[in-house]
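Work Package 4 report. The design task specified in the project plan requires that, given a folded chain encoded as structure tokens, an amino acid be chosen for each position. We show below one input record used in the internal validation round.
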């Protein structure tokens, strides 16, 4: 091209909405930089806006002061967004576009636009994978499987359950005004946990596979997807059992029912006297009933929550 081009330093940046996570106030603005897929990536926690600019219920608020002590000091900050950036990028642009401080598509040729679109797409998916990695590590180090991306609707309503007469379109029943709504569970991120997360990201360490399946199961149970939750819990339990370094080779080759019947003989630490042991054994029976016979008699929320707690105890005992 005849128009002059220049090489500029650049970065890719966006905000992603998350759920079930808050933080100690001192963590506001904390950043984690790490190498990811040959890029330098940064994850940043949000900062509360000045008190005079806080708008309650603002759908674009990055964070919100949520708990105060008796002296009026903020002790808990709810996180709505994380910032993710790919750093140390370079782009060749038309000189006029490099000087312009605002986006102006007319400054690029069709070929340049196509190239920028492709690169932007690549960085978008890179950022999503980096955020997924961050969530995997955060769930692992925080011990809380519900931390994830959020897709909260802009106009949530508490009027769910209203019934309409199709003959005239009018409502004939509405739930009581004082209907109770359960607040979402969340985890308060501490400085120690954040430091552990940053150290893990910097080292490029991935959580053990059983932790990922346990977290998947907890998220599925939270939205009442109980069948999938049971299967993920069983995978998590079987993974940690079969990878236990003290188990004999015979244990790795046998069915789970045989392993549970010969637990200590196969080299596992004594646990048959503990309440959670029988619940893990029952979890495998429930998984087999579901997958082999389509029998969902055990698919109940109370069973799933008990099984999740039992698998957490199993992982603690074997990992």
């Amino acid at each position: 091209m005849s128009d002059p081009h220049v090489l500029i330093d650049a970065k890719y940046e966006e905000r992603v909405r998350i759920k079930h996570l808050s933080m100690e106030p001192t963590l506001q603005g904390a950043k984690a930089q790490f190498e990811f897929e040959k890029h330098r990536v940064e994850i940043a926690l949000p900062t509360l806006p000045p008190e005079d600019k806080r708008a309650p219920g603002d759908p674009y608020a990055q964070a919100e002061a949520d708990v105060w002590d008796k002296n009026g000091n903020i002790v808990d900050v709810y996180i709505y967004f994380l910032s993710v950036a790919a750093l140390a990028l370079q782009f060749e642009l038309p000189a006029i576009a490099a000087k312009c401080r605002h986006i102006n598509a007319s400054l690029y040729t069709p070929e340049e636009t196509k190239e920028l679109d492709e690169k932007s797409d690549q960085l978008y998916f890179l950022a999503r994978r980096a955020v997924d990695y961050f969530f995997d590590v955060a769930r692992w180090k925080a011990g809380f499987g519900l931390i994830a991306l959020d897709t909260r609707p802009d106009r949530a309503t508490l009027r769910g359950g209203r019934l309409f007469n199709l003959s005239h379109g009018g409502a004939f029943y509405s739930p009581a005004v004082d209907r109770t709504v359960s607040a979402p569970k969340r985890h308060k991120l501490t400085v120690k946990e954040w430091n552990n997360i940053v150290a893990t990201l910097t080292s490029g360490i991935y959580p053990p596979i059983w932790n990922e399946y346990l977290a998947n199961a907890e998220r599925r149970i939270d939205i009442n997807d109980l069948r999938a939750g049971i299967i993920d819990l069983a995978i998590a339990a079987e993974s940690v059992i079969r990878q236990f370094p003290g188990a004999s080779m015979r244990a790795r080759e046998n069915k789970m029912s045989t392993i549970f019947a010969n637990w200590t003989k196969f080299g596992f630490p004594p646990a048959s006297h503990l309440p959670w042991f029988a619940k893990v054994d029952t979890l495998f029976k429930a998984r087999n009933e579901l997958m082999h016979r389509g029998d969902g008699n055990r698919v109940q929320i109370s069973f799933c929550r008990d099984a999740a707690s039992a698998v957490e105890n199993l992982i603690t005992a074997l990992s």
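The first strand starts at residue 5 and ends at 19. Validation will be extended to a larger panel in the next phase.
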